[in-house]
Design a protein that fits this description.
This protein folds into 4 domains: about 210 residues, Restriction Endonuclease, CATH 3.40.91; about 150 residues, no CATH class; about 210 residues, no CATH class; about 70 residues. By secondary structure, the protein is an alpha+beta fold. The strands form 6 sheets. It has a 5-stranded mixed beta sheet, sandwiched between helices. The chain has a 5-stranded mixed beta sheet with strand order 7-8-15-11-14, with helices on both faces. Strands 6-13-12 form a 3-stranded antiparallel beta sheet. The chain starts with a helix and ends in a 20-residue tail after the last strand. It has 26 helices and 20 strands.
Length: about 675
């Protein structure tokens, strides 16, 4: 390590402490920086990085636990778009220590934890170690992903990393030995796994930090047609592969405007793969719709075109297929070509129209296209006029170099609307991005009826609340976990309510609230009153959280004589898209249910027998059965008839179903 690399790294940390990225604590800043750089190729957003952070009490020596499927972070299995066939599973387990060297103790702890956490033969309640809810949740996510993807998995890698400010050339033998042991643990539990361990010191982190996304690239071509600033090119497959890769890694940041993630080897992608493998097939561009690229400028020089501000807005499936083919050692002796359309425009409205049009030609979730909605562009414009940048396209402004204090994500802003306009601070704190899948809930939050000036006011109030709460964070690490997520919304809402004088203030009344009156002192005053109820004792139990928040609301209503306290938490229902007060049904529990279930079709009332044996609720039973169906271990069953995933009849109960008409012989219980 160069002697000055540690100084340079400390300088980077100093800058981020000043920006509060993610806080003012140097160890947290270092940890966030390490996650960001180690996973740089995945181009994760700030929220995605924070979702993978599991550092805290009972973390088992694991600070970061990230699961990626086809390069996309698996944060919420319920809303994740799973590949239909071919897939790649990538796992990163990271330990971060803001130390000057690499120590053995953190790896000793990690060895003990991994030995049982990666043993899927043990249920979570059988583990000897005491692990946090976050660790157990990531374990269940990994177990689900491995089970779900294993029948069609092309590649599985498990990367272990240890990041510190130390020198990787001075790692002791005992520390190196422990890293080899950890690598062996990965291979021991997953025979088909590529297991590896990497040390990241000051030099490595500084080098990664210097590596910035390159949106200005040159693409060689063999043939071209042009009309004004519109181009149609034929480029060699190998040249296009090199255009979209950097050191063998796919430049995923080029696809921020593409609304579809790689769907695995579905029928279309499988056809693309077979075409690439077959050297006797017709030229590739004859059989493929090609690629669409947006750029802000283009210059043709000889047989190449130089592009600025590149965004590949259509053709992710084709690009991924080409990338995987050459990455796996594929060759193209016939120099086949891919068709590429290049459109030069600096107008956001035009670019968004092209994105929507080119991605609306195949099945795409409506939620994926929301970034191009007029309301989203309007919010971006009004926030920019107020010195804020709206990341309706993931990492767009971050990649342009804007500070975290200046950027606002859709989920952050939506949670503020739920809190301040819909009057639901509790729901706001647990809002998940999947609420955008529902047209009703999306329209309730991103309402065109809301005055446009309410959005910058919401953003500024939340940001100011965050800044103050950062200075009030508890010193104890266990009380520090998810501090902002737990307290920003109720603190912001109650401060605004006090200043306006009522809980049921309108959007226009919020707009008229003088931001200069929303001072640090007023926010601290609110926090002091909340502290009367010992917020450090807040649990993850939804019912207890509701009771706690209700007490706080009533206290403020009485102390400051604010009316209409009953209006709080009575707004639009977004409960389907937030964390609910239900027991977590994991695969371990589902398999216990499966062991007690007879072959299908099972008889009416079987759920009563099983819930009695397992001492669980009916809701938990049916959730477990649904999980078994989702995993393909059981089939849908209704009124004695068993169906496959396509709705075809597999079998039926002859005591309840007429074999000729397939109608019920008598009334029966409804089943899954």
């Amino acid at each position: 390590m160069a002697k000055n690399d540690k100084v340079l790294l400390d300088g980077i940390i100093d800058d981020r402490v000043e920006m509060k990225l993610p806080s003012t604590r140097r160890d947290e800043v270092f940890e966030h920086l390490a996650f960001e750089q180690i996973l740089k190729d995945a181009d994760l957003s700030k929220e995605e990085i924070e979702s993978g952070s599991v550092d805290g009490q009972n973390d088992g020596g694991i600070d970061g636990f990230f699961i990626l499927v086809n390069g996309i972070l698996l944060a919420d299995p319920e809303s994740f778009v799973w590949p239909r066939t071919g897939s790649e599973l990538e796992v990163w387990i990271i330990t971060c220590k803001h130390h000057d060297t690499f120590l053995q103790a953190p790896l000793d702890n990690l060895v003990a934890s991994l030995t049982e956490l990666l043993d899927f033969g043990q249920n979570s309640d059988e583990l000897k170690g005491d692990y946090s809810e976050q660790i157990l949740k990531r374990r269940e996510n990994l177990k689900l992903a491995y089970r779900k993807l294993s029948p069609r998995m092309n590649k599985f890698s498990m990367g272990f990393a240890y990041a510190s400010r130390g020198d990787t050339s001075e790692i002791g033998e005992s520390v190196a030995s422990r890293s080899k042991q950890i690598t062996a643990i990965g291979k021991e539990f997953f025979g088909n796994c590529e297991s590896f361990f990497t040390f990241y010191g000051s030099t490595e982190l500084v080098e990664l930090h210097r590596k910035t996304p390159n949106f200005s690239l040159e693409l060689p071509f063999s043939e071209a047609l042009s009309k004004g600033e519109r181009y149609i090119l034929l480029a060699r497959l190998k040249d296009y592969y090199q255009f979209v890769t950097d050191d063998g890694k796919l430049r995923r940041y080029l696809f921020d405007s593409n609304v579809r993630d790689f769907m695995g080897l579905n029928r279309v992608n499988e056809d693309i793969r077979e075409t690439l493998r077959n050297n006797n097939s017709p030229d590739f561009w004859w059989l493929n719709n090609g690629i669409t690229i947006l750029a802000t400028s283009a210059s043709v020089i000889g047989k190449s075109i130089q592009l600025e501000d590149i965004q590949i807005v259509n053709g992710l499936q084709t690009t991924e297929s080409i990338f995987r083919y050459f990455e796996s050692g594929g060759i193209d002796p016939n120099d086949r070509s891919v068709l590429i359309r290049i459109i030069v425009s600096k107008e956001d409205v035009v670019r968004d129209a092209i994105i929507r049009a080119t991605n609306n030609q195949t099945d795409v979730e409506l939620a994926s296209l929301h970034a191009t909605d007029k309301i989203q562009r309007d919010i971006e414009d009004i926030l920019q006029r107020n010195g804020l940048y709206y990341e309706r396209r993931k990492n767009y402004y971050t990649n342009l170099g804007h500070l975290p204090s200046e950027t606002i994500t859709p989920l952050y802003l939506a949670s503020g609307y739920v809190c301040l306009i819909l009057k639901s601070p509790l729901k706001a704190g647990s809002l998940k991005s999947k609420f955008m899948r529902s047209v009703e809930s999306y329209n309730a939050v991103f309402s065109t009826k809301a005055p446009i000036n309410v959005w910058p006011k919401i953003a500024m109030l939340l940001k100011r609340t965050d800044n103050v709460l950062e200075t009030l964070r508890p010193t104890k690490r266990w009380a520090n976990e998810k501090f902002l997520k737990n307290w920003r919304h109720i603190t912001c809402f109650l401060t605004a309510s006090r200043l306006i004088g009522k809980f049921d203030f309108s959007a226009n009344e919020l707009i008229q609230l003088d931001i200069n009156k929303f001072t640090n002192k007023e926010i601290e005053k609110t926090w002091k009153q909340i502290n009367i109820f010992h917020p450090n004792s807040l649990t993850n139990n939804a019912r207890k959280r509701r009771d706690f928040f209700r007490k706080v609301y009533q206290s403020f209503a009485a102390k400051y004589r604010i009316t209409n306290v009953e209006r709080i938490e009575k707004g639009h229902s977004l409960s389907e898209y937030t964390e609910r007060d239900v027991a977590i049904v994991d695969m371990d529990f589902a398999l216990r249910v499966d062991a007690l279930l007879p072959p299908q079709p099972w008889k009416p009332g079987i759920h009563r027998e099983i819930t009695r044996k397992l001492k669980c609720t009916t809701s938990e039973y049916f959730s477990a059965v649904q999980l078994l169906i989702d995993e393909g271990l059981r089939n849908n069953q209704k009124d004695g008839i068993v169906y496959d995933s396509e709705g075809n009849v597999l079998t039926f109960d002859p005591e309840r179903v007429d074999p000729n008409s397939m109608k019920q012989l008598s009334n029966t219980d409804t089943e899954i």
